[in-house]
Specification:
Two copies of one chain form a homodimer. By secondary structure, chain A is of the alpha/beta class. Chain A contains eleven helices and twelve strands. Chains A and B meet through strand 9, helix 8 and helix 10 of A and strand 9, helix 8 and helix 10 of B.
Chain lengths: 324, 324
């Protein structure tokens, strides 16, 4: 008598829905557009309607659903079941998300922040290999993070655990961060951060370089082009910038590991597309800065699930919630 | 029908024993000398004999004991119930500690590393105020640490969680650490680290200072005297060194908090005797380097239990173990 989990990965463009069986297989999936009009008040009703339609169409009884899990942007109040400050959903005021789901479906409902949920997804079905303790660091426009200890997400006293992107990592000549601090990891190790470094260090490098010329001319430069020029063209300035970039990441990873000695630190997000080229270079600095018993055991790995991390994580918060 | 816990805090000089009731009160306590002769093989038998003597003398049945907890130096193998590398106990080879206790007493036995146990003790009955997530940093000859998440100690994949003392904290002009790395927190923020700083920065300071004169003359200087001269005499070089010291600690604390957002980061160990003078200065830098949502909620506090932290923690690992 197998039961299903409905997992929802809510983003600013679409809400991706999936049905998982007890073997953690996604046996069905669909999505609905995220309509952020009317201050985002249509988002949850649209998701609910879409799930009801799915259940009717597939002739699945609600009794076959053991729970619904949602990963969402924004700040979550777990006690109240509410979400606030999800700006890409137009949710500026408190949204009573759990109440709406529980009114529609008489099954357990769980939700968590999207960065956390992705970390849990990778821990459960991806590069975390179900190890008890795993930390994920997501390198995108910003730097996000999620911490899993004993198979459970760590939230912290103010839901701010995993704010790896705002770890202060440069003290001598820091770049201002959008958060109000300066020298945050995000200013040097996000996609934006790579570009910041290429601009900031332009006068440190005397050699010939296509990348350097591009920056000097004011051409548009991206993290992708910096990593591509480093790996494929062996552009010396690009290699220099990548070396600074991975040094900063190695510092942050060593701080995490010297505190938690996790089985894996997982690199996710767009920049992780550089794969082994990135991983091996981060690992080099990570090992240099980590305690001997830690560098031999905590591994630096690349995320495996891509966009599905959020859906797997949304399912696993249901499992974790039901087992508590 | 209340039951008791026997808690043991084993150190290189003595093993302190305590009996705790269900209200977490130490209702009896005694100690035995740690005899490290014969490669430390007498240590556990002596403790066992002492506990048996206590039970007989007080006419307490073993049925009234719900468990025995031990905090010990060294590296613990939790699966095997063994301890190794406890050099101050003369335990160079693997010691089958759990087997010996379980042969003598037919009750559950739990043990953990002494730094971890002290952190759990403070979390449970001290400055941690039973918050779910607490980190303790102990400033003694070295810098130790313990991480409590969801009320449980975090061990890490290789028992090396909480190695805060070996977080790399100085990258530009690092001091060599006994661990083989350089720039570790321990080289600048232990009692030894304070003295290292007073020596290293002697030429950075041009003013008049008793401390500076002492260092120049080669007089013996201690962390205690540096903090005393800073606080009581307002010695300018001592204040300068303290400012460097607390800046490093603030960095480490912010790295921990940006990862875990714990309720409390507890400062313990000998240097914590400086109390509010130390705490407020660490807090200043901690807040400067921490994400806004974290600096408003994660608190820097001074340990409360002193030498009893280990005994309370040894008792709490019994409670945690029995509730698992």
């Amino acid at each position: 008598m197998s039961k299903f989990i409905i997992a929802i990965d809510l983003g600013g463009t679409s809400a991706k829905m999936g049905v998982l069986n007890d073997n953690a297989e996604i046996i069905d999936r669909w999505s609905v557009e995220t309509d952020i009009s009317q201050e985002g008040t249509l988002i949850v009703p649209n998701i609910i309607q879409s799930i009801q339609g799915f259940l009717n169409r597939e002739n699945i009884s609600i009794d076959d659903i053991k729970g619904i899990g949602l990963g969402t942007p924004g700040t979550i109040n777990h006690e109240e079941g509410t979400v606030v400050s999800a700006y890409n959903l137009n949710w500026r005021t408190v949204q009573h998300v759990r109440d709406q789901f529980q009114e529609a479906f008489p099954v357990p409902f769980f939700m968590d922040n999207d960065a956390n949920v992705a970390a849990l997804g990778e821990q459960w079905q991806g590069a975390g290999e179900q190890a008890d303790n795993v930390v994920m660091v997501t390198l995108g426009t910003g730097v996000g993070g999620g911490v899993v200890i004993d198979g459970q997400l760590v939230h912290g006293i103010n839901q701010a655990a995993g704010e790896i992107g705002h770890m202060t990592i440069e003290f001598h000549d820091p770049i201002d961060c959008t958060c109000g601090k300066k020298g945050c990891l995000e200013t040097v190790a996000s996609a934006t951060g790579a570009v910041n470094l290429a601009t900031k260090h332009i006068n440190d490098f005397g050699g010939q370089s296509e990348l350097k010329s591009m920056v000097e001319r004011g051409d548009e430069v991206s993290a992708y082009s910096i990593f591509q020029k480093a790996e494929e063209d062996q552009d010396e300035y690009a290699l220099y910038i990548v070396d600074l970039y991975v040094d900063y990441l190695g510092r942050a990873f060593s701080h995490i590991a010297n505190t938690l000695n996790p089985a894996n630190i997982i690199i996710g997000g767009g920049v992780s597309g550089s794969g082994e080229f990135l991983r091996s270079r981060v690992e080099k600095y990570f090992k240099e800065y980590s305690f001997s018993q830690i560098r031999e055991t905590s591994k630096v790995v690349i995320a495996k699930l891509g966009n599905d991390a959020g859906m797997f994580g949304a399912a696993q918060i249901v499992n974790n919630g039901l087992n508590k």
